[in-house]
Design a protein that fits this description.
Elements (H helix, E strand, L loop, with lengths): L34 H5 L2 E3 L4 E6 L33 E6 L1 E8 L2 H5 L8 H21 L18 H4 L27 E8 L2 H15 L5 E5 L1 H11 L15 E11 L5 E11 L2 E7 L11 E4 L4 E14 L7 E12 L6 E7 L1
Parallel strand pairs: 1-11, 5-13, 6-9
Antiparallel strand pairs: 2-3, 4-12, 6-10, 7-8, 8-9, 10-13, 11-12
Length: 351
């Protein structure tokens, strides 16, 4: 006998007395993690245009030799040099994020399988806003100046790691990235004809090292296609303890790292550790709903990044005007990038 569903009309005949069962179980089938936003050191912002300075060292000079007895600044001696000629100012625009929530008066009063009262609506809106922040940070968005009819936007990771350094310097009212601080074109894999191999991945690390001279640890936040390609293509049956003297590249699994999600919660991510020629890379999965596509990955040095918050993620309740309780979640912040030349990215490769 087929079951008569209540939404098809009331049951008839012998089914009239049948009980229905609706399980007290609802699954949210959507990833909520925000690994990039979670790893960024947070600090306060007090203006719409957040600014910071970066500096560089001059080229090394093998002929720096001092003649005996010659005073500084005299004829034949060292000339006095201005040490801060490369000091530059970088900046970014604040972005205001908001999501609203409300429930009807009846829904607030009645029992239901999935709690759909105002508190649960508030929590869901918070999770959705967190994903919006993560997607904005990981996007290719260029800066936009807020004005009447126009919402301000931050310069995102995709724009900070643009080797041309341009694109939003005029329209967004932010500084163009000086050439000395731009992401190297060799630190970007962006061609569908380029194979993502161990050699090409090491090329990203090499390009960053040649720019910074630092063997820094990096985090690769990767879409599923990138992560699977690296794990399947580079993995050797080898552990840290068994790495041979030949310097084989290593991927070790079973490690973890913890990121604060910005709403007070913490998420533990499983990571693979890639040991390359110029440092160690922790490989974690990007939130697949918050990245341009699954062939996108960012090679990040957390010490070169930050996030300035003018307003932490918070909730505001609005007046109930008769329809039921309502409110909104909002947040205001922007991405800080202290050294684009220390970052890399993958946007496309041959599969």
């Amino acid at each position: 006998m087929a079951f008569d569903k209540s939404y098809d009309g009331p049951p008839t005949g012998s089914a009239s007395g049948n009980r229905e069962q609706l399980l007290d179980l609802t699954t949210v089938l959507a990833p909520r993690q925000a690994p990039v936003y979670g790893m960024l050191p947070k600090q306060a912002a007090t203006a719409d245009l957040v600014e910071w300075t970066v500096d560089n060292l001059r080229d090394a000079d093998a002929d720096n030799a001092v003649e005996e007895g010659i005073d500084v600044g005299t004829s034949g001696g060292d000339s006095l040099k201005a040490q801060f000629g490369s000091l530059s100012r970088l900046n970014n625009r604040l972005q205001h994020f908001r999501d609203t929530f409300n429930v009807s008066k009846k829904q607030e009063l009645f029992d239901s399988v999935t709690p759909v009262r105002i508190q649960e609506a508030e929590e869901k809106a918070t999770s959705q806003l967190l994903r919006d922040i993560e997607k904005a940070v990981c996007s290719d968005n260029t800066a936009v100046v807020g004005a009447s009819g126009t919402a301000g936007k931050m310069r995102a990771l995709g724009a900070w790691t643009n080797p041309s350094g341009a694109g939003d310097a005029v329209a967004g009212g932010v500084s163009e990235i000086p050439s000395d601080f731009r992401t190297s074109s060799d630190a970007v894999i962006s061609s569908s004809s380029t194979e993502l191999t161990e050699s090409s991945f090491n090329g990203l690390l090499t390009a960053i090292f040649e720019e910074t001279g630092e063997q820094s640890d990096h985090v690769l936040v990767a879409g599923t296609t990138v992560r699977n390609k690296i794990i399947d293509g580079f993995t050797r049956v080898r552990t840290v303890a068994n790495q041979n003297a030949g310097g084989d590249t290593l991927i070790a699994s079973g490690n973890s790292t913890t990121f604060n999600q910005g709403d007070g919660s913490e998420i533990v991510y499983n990571v693979e550790i890639f040991q390359g020629p110029f440092g160690i890379v922790k490989i974690i999965s990007a939130n697949p709903k918050c990245i341009a596509d699954q062939k996108r990955a960012y090679l990040l040095d957390p010490s070169l990044l930050g996030y300035a918050e003018a307003m932490s993620i918070g909730s505001t309740m609005l007046e109930d005007q008769g329809g039921g309780p309502r409110g909104y979640i909002d947040h205001m912040g922007t991405l800080i990038c202290r050294g684009p030349n220390g970052l890399g990215k993958i946007t496309d490769f041959a599969t």
